[in-house]
Each structure stands twice: as structure tokens, then as C-alpha cells.
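Internal ticket - ligand job 440, glycyl-adenosine-5'-phosphate:
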Amino acid sequence: MTKEPENNLMEKIVALSKRRGFVYQGSEIYGGLSGTWDYGPLGVALKKNIENLWWKRFVSDREDMYGVDAAILMNQEVWKASGHTTTFSDPLVECMKCKRRFRADQLTDPKTCPDCKGKLGEARQFNMMFKTHSGATEDETAVSYLRPETAGGMFVNFKNVLDSLHPKLPFGLAQIGKAFRNEIAPRDFIFRVRELEQMEIEYFIPEKLWEEQFEYWRKEMLDWMKSIGLSSSKIHELEVAPEDRAHYSKRTIDFEFDFPFGRKELYGLAYRTDFDLTNHSKASGVDLSYFDDETKERFMPHVIEPTFGVGRTMLALLCDAYTEDTLGEEPRIFLKLSPAVAPVKVAVFPLLKNKPQLVEKAKEVFTMLKKEFGAVVFDDNGNIGKRYRRQDEIGTPFCITVDFDTVEKDAGVTVRGRDTGKQERVVISELSAFLKKALS
Ligand code: GAP
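stdout (C-alpha cells):
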């Protein structure tokens, strides 16, 4: 089994994503829109699996976590108070000759245009928030922003959740949703995009707990990555230097992943102190402090923020899973995805599509499994070898074939595993239990 050389691996992953319906270029028939990508049927399935696993692990399976789903458009005061209107920017340079624009901190030579070799102008700060107007007026009072991080929606709802559910500290708010960043140079497929999705937690604590909670969430994040099947050897922690941290953070760790285009940030963990609640209290005039019933103290909670990009999770999974090998005589591509995230769990085939007794039995098996496992497909197109290859390419862990022995001798079905191609006979009455065990 060989892993693809890194230089053309990305091209192959982009091609597979399009060919098999994971990810398409945004607005493709009009020539695309830079920094946007559309998820196709299999991409949506993979994305939902990631999000559902995340939500189950970090929200529904816990007693100290509360979900919110805040509006994407927020009052401009939110982003003034959080510091985003003044500091959420990247350095922009323009080529004096071809007029192309670049992110200054990503250039190897900050003086020369990488495209036309013309002279680059002085760098200036470019705010990455998407600005719009809410309602029919277009003056300054109607300015609104598409949120650049989901976090803002949790800070402004902190008091709402306190007042309606009365949670005791420490507790967290969690949200999955879109965020928008007018990136100067979107790149590397779905790695750096302008419309992204985040899974974020704001975990509220008394200040004295920040170090132990930071360590707790560091381990939780590593465990999560392991649980979805990312190779530990490709994950690296980077202690972010003070001058590189976001304006609100007193400590940040980036979890980096070895993507084919280099070691890059996958997730982040930040200690946001009481920066957000204090600033929102001051700016809104609404007291966002917390009263501890036991100690009778009132104080501003501090925050540990574990943040996860959905698209980057998906990209890391695809890059990690993409494998080429030779099974039997034929070379094949397969996605070695963990069954927990695989968009299709099981595929069911009749050996021959023109034999009604085989098709009928295969449909019966398919219906039975679909009820139990959900993500099950029926395929009778082409020969068995082709069907295996198609399922391998999308990472389906198991293929099941109904043949003449199944119907004539009630001798079970053939279950074929994706990674080894190994086949075994399983009687139909034991199929559910077999798959449940194998998929868990
Ligand atoms: N609330 C904190 C925050 O937004 P961030 O490091 O700017 O922190 C969090 O972003 C995560 O969102 C990143 O670790 C990454 O997974 C994802 N992310 C950020 N910018 C992105 C972009 N332009 N395209 C895709 N994902 C992005």
C-alpha cells in the first residue's frame, strides 16, 4: 500500500471530491466565486457526520454544555466591543504593475510581485469582515457584519442562557455555524475560504481555574481528533507566541495538521480571559457578571475557547484517508475513513442485475440494513469489481453481495471489507449484529 507523493496529492483529492460528489467549486457554471465551495451529497453526509459526532460528544453527552444557534447578522456594536472592527485584519500589499493583491505575511519576498515580478507597494491593514446594510437604508447606522466567528453569538447570549436555564459555573455554550472572512488570498481547496463553518465552545470558568481547564480542553481536543480517525503522527501542537495571538487571547495553542501543502492550523484553543464579557458589559450597559450562590461573590467569568473548523476537519480527513494500492491485479484508490465519519456505511449488491431473484433478495437485505444503519446504498450498476471500486473511492467500509447461494441454499451473503478486500460469509440473520460490531 502506498501513500501518494505529496505534490500531486491535492490535485487528486480535489478531482476525487468533484468526481464523487464531495465538494464542487462555488458558482461553478459561472466561472466560480473565489473562496467559496459547495458541498455535494457525499460532502454533506461527511460534514453532518463530523458535526453530529462533535455535538454528541461536546454537547448532548455532557451536563455542563448548552447549545445555541445565533443569527449570522449581528448588531455592529458587537464587533466594535469585541475589537474586530479595529483589529480583525491582515496585511495587504498591491503590485504597482499588475495591480494584483496579496497577503504580505505570506510572501517570500515582500517587495516583489510573485506573479509579474513588479514592485509591491506598502502593506496596509485590510479588515476581513464582510460588511453589509441591514434594511432599506444604507447609512452608517444600518451597517451590519456577517459574523467573522461564531463566538460573538455566544457571548451576547451568555446572560439569556443564565437567566433561562440557571447553569452553575463552570459551564459552556456551544455552537455550529457559518462564519465569513474576506480572506485576501483564499487557497488550498477548502482550507482557506471566505465562507466557512465553525464548531466552537465558549467555556465559562472562575479565573482561578483557567490553567487546569486549558489543559483539560487541550486533551479533549486531542481525543476528539483521535476519535474521528485522524493520524496522531500528523497532529502537532504549536504554542502561539504573544505577538501572534489574537487580540483577546492570553494563551493560544494551535493544533496543526500535516496537510499535503504543509503543516497548517487545523484547530485552536485560546484563553480569552474575561475580555469579551467585560467589553460587552461596558459597551451594551448590560451587566454580564455571574453571581456565585455558594461563595456569594459576583465576578466576571473567564473563558476557555476550543474552536474547530468544519471544512478543515473534512480536508484533514480526506488527505489522511486518501490511499492508492493494488488489490488483486488492479490498482485502486480508496478512502480509509473511520466508519464513524464515512458518508456511506454499507453498500448492498445483487451479483447480477438481470436475475430477479438476486435483485429481490438484495433489496430485502438493503431495506433491512437501511432501517438500522441509515447510510446504506443499493448498487447494481456495472460488474462487481467496478462497484467495489466505486465504494472504495468514497470510503464505504463494507460491501455486501447477494449471490445464488444466498437464495438457493440460504447460505448468507458475502461481506467484503474495504481496507483489505477480505471477504467472508455471514448469514443474514446475523448480519446486523456483525455490522454493528464491525462499524463501531
Ligand atoms: N473564535 C476563534 C476563532 O475564530 P480562528 O483561529 O480565527 O479562531 C478558528 O478560527 C478555526 O476556524 C480555525 O482553527 C480553522 O479551523 C477555522 N478557520 C479559520 N479561518 C478559516 C478560513 N478562512 N477557512 C477555513 N477555515 C477557517
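Auto-summary: Residues 149, 151, 181, 183, 192-193, 196, 198, 200, 265-268, 305, 307, 309, 311-312 surround glycyl-adenosine-5'-phosphate (CB under 6 Å). The first strand starts at residue 23 and ends at 25.
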